[in-house]
Amino acid sequence: MTAEAPAIAAPTPLWRRLLNHRSFMVGATLFGAIVLMALLADLIAPHDPLRNNFRYRLGEPNDVHWLGTDRAGRDVLSRIIHGSQVSLRIGLMVVLITGVCGAVIGGLAGYFRHLDNVVMRVMDAMMAFPGILLAIAIAAVLGPSEFNAVLALSITYTPRTARVARAAVLVVREMPYVEAARAVGAGHARILLTHVLPNGLTPLIVQLSYIFAIAILAEAVLSFIGVGPPPPLPTFGNIIADGRDFVQEAPWICLYPGLAIAVAVLGLNLIGDGLRDALDPRMKVDLR
Amino acid sequence: MIRFLANRLIAALPVLFIVSLLTFVLIYFVPGDVSAELAGPGASAADIARIRSVYGLDSPFHERLLGWYAALAQGDLGQSVLLRRSVTEAILERLPVTLSLTALALVLAIAVGVATGILAAMRVNTWVDQATMTVALAGLSLPDFWLGLVMIYLFAVQLGWLPTGGYVPLTENPVGWLRSMAMPALALALTQIGLLARMTRASMLDVLRQDFMRTARAKGLPNRVVIFKHALANVMIPVITVIGLSVGILLGGAIVIEQVFSIPGVGRLIIGGILRRDFPVIQGGLLLTATVFVLVNLAVDILYAVVDPRVRYDR
Question: Does residue B223 register a pLDDT over 90?
Answer without folding.
Answer: no
